[in-house]
């Protein structure tokens, strides 16, 4: 059972990377600033969809709120770490501060995305649990 949960985390992380890299590529190809904004908004919406689907899958397995929030946050953080590794490589290869930028990104992005994802998943879990039981 744990192996299935691990694969769910990995698949959700891969989905975040695909969304991030795909929409970034499309935003770079956009012919106007409005097109760039539209692709950035699409990235947020697709990522929100991945988050919601992953949260629903984890909750559907009957896991406790805390473990569901941890799994969802780990997927977000892992996806952010992969994007942080790929982003500087594409955008700053050969610059003098490349290694510092990459190291900072690899630490900062998982924290800056994983912690809020954990909090949101935990709050959503509390709200949904209360809604299911009909209590306040």
Question: Could you characterize what this model shows?
Answer:
This protein has 136 residues and is mainly alpha-helical. It has one domain. The chain has four helices and no strands. It has helices at residues 2-29, 33-60, 65-92, 98-133. Helix 1 (2-29) runs antiparallel to helix 2 and helix 3 (65-92) runs antiparallel to helix 4. The longest helix has 36 residues, at 98-133. The protein is globular. The mean pLDDT is 88.
SSE blueprint:
Layout: H1 2-29, H2 33-60, H3 65-92, H4 98-133
Helix pairs in contact: 1-2, 1-3, 2-3, 3-4
Describe the structure using short key phrases.
136 residues, mainly alpha
Short recap of the structure:
The chain is an all-alpha fold.
Low-confidence stretches: none
Whole-number count of domains: 1
Q: Please give the oligomerization state of what you see.
A: single chain
User: Secondary-structure element order, as H and E?
Assistant: HHHH
Radius of gyration: 17 Å
Strand-residue proportion: under 5%
Euclidean distance between termini CA atoms: 32 Å
Q: What is the global morphology? A: globular
Query: How many DSSP E strands?
Result: 0
The SS-based structural class is mainly alpha
Roughly how much helix do the residues carry, as a percent range? over 70%
Counting H and I runs of at least 4 residues, what is the number of helices?
Answer: 4
Strand count, sense and closure of the main sheet?
A: none
């Amino acid at each position: 059972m744990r192996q299935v949960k691990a694969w769910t985390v990995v698949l959700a992380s891969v989905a975040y990377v695909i969304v991030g890299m795909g929409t970034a590529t499309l935003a770079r190809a956009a012919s106007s600033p409005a097109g760039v904004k539209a692709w950035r908004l699409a990235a947020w919406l697709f990522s929100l969809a991945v988050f919601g689907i992953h949260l629903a899958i984890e909750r559907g397995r009957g896991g406790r709120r805390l473990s569901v929030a941890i799994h969802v946050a780990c997927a977000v953080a892992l996806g952010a770490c992969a994007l942080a590794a790929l982003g500087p490589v594409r955008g700053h290869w050969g610059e003098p501060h490349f290694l510092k930028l990459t190291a900072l990104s690899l630490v900062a992005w998982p924290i800056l995305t994983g912690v809020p994802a954990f909090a949101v998943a935990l709050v959503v879990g509390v709200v949904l649990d209360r809604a299911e039981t009909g209590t306040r």
